[in-house]
Amino acid sequence: MKKILSFFTSRLFIVFALIGIQALIIISIFYYFDDESQTLQTIFFVLSLFMALYIVNKRQNASYKLAWIIPVLVLPLLGILLYIFFSQRKLSKKMRLKAKGIYEKTNCLLQQDTGVMQRLEEENRGALRQADYIRRCNMFPVWEKTQTQYFPSGEAFFEQLKAELEKAERYIFMEYFIVQKGVMWDSILDILKRKAEAGVDVRFMYDDMGCARTLPFQYYKKLREMGIKCVVFNTLKPELSSIFNNRDHRKITVIDGHTAFCGGANLADEYINEIEKFGHWKDASVMLKGQAAWSFAMMFLQSWDFMVGGDNDCSAFLPEQKYAQAFRTDGFVQPYCNDPMDDEYISENVYLNMITRAEKYLYINTPYLILDNELMAALTNAAKSGVDVRITTPHIPDKKMVFLLTRAYYEQLLEAGVRIYEYTPGFIHSKTFVCDDKLSIVGTINLDYRSLFLHYECGVWMYGAQAVMQVKQDYLDTMPLCEEVDYEQVRRRKWYIRLMQAVLRVFAPLM
What we know:
Blueprint: H1 2-8, H2 11-36, H3 38-56, H4 62-74, H5 76-86, H6 93-106, H7 114-123, H8 125-138, E1 146-151, H9 154-166, E2 171-176, H10 183-197, E3 201-207, H11 219-225, E4 229-233, E5 252-255, E6 259-263, E7 280-282, E8 285-290, H12 293-308, E9 332-338, H13 346-357, E10 361-365, H14 373-384, E11 388-394, H15 400-408, H16 410-416, E12 419-423, E13 426-428, E14 432-435, E15 439-443, H17 449-454, E16 457-463, H18 466-478, E17 482-484, H19 487-491, H20 495-506
Parallel strand pairs: 2-3, 3-4, 7-13, 10-11, 11-12
Antiparallel strand pairs: 1-8, 2-5, 5-6, 6-8, 9-16, 10-14, 12-17, 14-15, 15-16
């Protein structure tokens, strides 16, 4: 009863309840007149046809368009209103222009060293094409003089994070989707408070929806009282708008411009197994020490300026010269990010490029497996071509409907030769790709529509780096803890399960 009361009195519930009331009022007004007039019914029907044509001709993912065309045609008025308020991927023109100005201002601090590209071309021309795509569409360069270290668990990441935060001398930047009071956050907050008191520039950004049920309302004020500069990303407001779709799902820490962390772990106790929610929680992160850390500093500063409307002199945050030669080269490292500013699906395209270029094997960890046609075709074609494609998903779900949807894709993948495993101790939250002992991606990007098309995300693309083989070894070490999914068992699932999954797949882009 206490949990139920807590849910109905939470800020998240209140905000969405108010949005729902606004939607009901608008719909009721339209339907009142609709009942009185055959003419209005005809108008709504015609509008739904035009809206469907408009959606078909948009530069969007085909599955995403299909998921919206159905409600628009079946429920003309309601479908149109839902599409207008909740479907838009791109931000408003005003916000895109604002972001463009910030990117243009900071682009001079992200220049590509042509010598690095030449050396990558000598190593692997296919890898060069991938890196060049990221640089051209995302502006973030490929770096050398960077050491990489992979952490196969939230616990390992947490201990290293605390150690590196203690070393901060100039600044600490942190950007996270979920923050919750407990062992993990309280330990980090203690360090941040002490560093701020010592004169370190400490800046923290958290997503308002991600933290709506985990932090008190206006928690940022408490952090500011401690001397920590804090910004709330995309504040939840009780108004009809599609902007609440665009969440900051990134997990970034940057220390003095030379050390950075990125991965799946948020700042809450389930990520380090201090509390148990869905069995054992397995996550993954990567630490960069050296030049590539600067890309994450720029990602943070760009987001910071976008939210506060400030005008930072980003060059003031460049790492000190003494660090220029401090780190050895550990392969090629390229941090990148994705945002809903344009029609370039960088997150998906980076994954697709890795899938299609795999020659021997491709191992994937993902908490959610919700695939569009492009990803499904790439994965099945790779398996049919003889590539050893393996995907690990959770055995204990955090969201039952999403888990049912994840399993809806098993049959087609297994039939093509993809091997699927479920992590039996609990929930695997890692988002990792590794192939051919050469390439790997570690980041925040799930294999679902929200991560690939709607959220602010980030990741690290690596070629020949130490962390590549660490990711592979972690995958192989985890396999004995997993249960391989049997094709015949999946094929014989109950008819009503198939029906539910068929419906969920149609509307998967909206989940």
